[in-house]
Structures are given as structure tokens and as C-alpha cells.
Amino acid sequence: MNNVLNTRKCPFCGSLNLLEYLYGFPAYDYDKEKYILGGCKITDYQPIYMCSDCNKDIFLENVINIQIIDDTIKDLENNSNACKLVYIESSLSEQLLKLIKYFYDEDLVDEDYISNYEFIKNKKIEELTLQECLTYFTYIIRLDRFSSGYIYKVVSEGILLKLLERLRSILR
Ligand SMILES: [Zn+2]
Known about the structure:
By secondary structure, the chain is an alpha+beta fold. 43% of the residues lie in helices and 12% in strands. The protein folds into 2 domains: 18-62, no CATH class; 64-171, no CATH class. α2 runs antiparallel to α7 (159-171) and α4 packs across α5 (130-146). It is elongated, with a radius of gyration of 18 Å. It binds zinc ion. Zinc ion binds next to loops. Residues 10, 12-13, 15, 51, 53-54, 56 line the site of zinc ion.
């Protein structure tokens, strides 16, 4: 899976001087002002950046806004109109729109979601990793463009709530 974040601030010291980890063995000369080698072993839990100022490793979970996920979970639990079907289109609450906008703004979208979805389609939501949750979320919001009412379907079946709760439990 690819790294999904672009330019970030260090969540620990606020520095903008972040080096992005490159994994695997780069076949090209990389810019040492921008990148740092992370080694060849690819695991599910590896940092995305290293802060040049405080030297801390920064993981995806350090940069995701937990509040916005909590707010959306509350919205889905308490607002029966969080997602409605209007004619054949999904009509989303302000909070759901905010979450989707956040995903796009923060580049949490998995550009390889079509191929990555193949690996997770038979997995239980409770077993998804952080990256896989982002893949699934991308799949849901992208599919709604081609398959009208898809978000409504996953909301009414409780799938979106489950997915956000899974995300929340990983980030805790
Ligand atoms: Zn720092």
C-alpha cells in the first residue's frame, strides 16, 4: 500500500521539517532533504515521517483527526437522518459531508483502492488495519459516484458506523 499523506506538521513539536520514509530499496537517487530510508521490511505498522527537529517517528494515527471521527460516530448513532435516500441519491448530513471533505483535504484517500479492496473484501471489518479502513472508506465514497445510493446502503446497514468504530479503536 502506498503512503497516503502529503505535507504535514509534526504532531509533537509543530515543525514543518518532516522527512518522508521511503521503504524498500530505492532504484533512484533520492533527495536526502526530503526522504529517509525506512528499510526493506514492509509491515502494517511503520512510520510515515520522521521529524527533523524532534527526531520522532510519525505514524498515520498521529495525524488523523480523532474528533471528526468521534463526531461522525455520534451523528450516525443519534441522527436518524444522517443519511437519507432522496430519489435515488444518497443525501448526507453536514457531519458526513465534513468527514468526506476531511478525507479528501488530508489526502487520506487510497488512490489504489480498487486493487487494495480485493484484499479486504472478504475480511471482517473488526480485522481491518488502519490502511485497510482507509481503503474501504475510499471505496465507499467513490462507489457512490457510480452506484447511486451506495452510501445510503452502507449507512442503513450499519457498515459505515462499524468501519468508523474500527478506525476509532485502532487510533485509541
Ligand atoms: Zn517534531
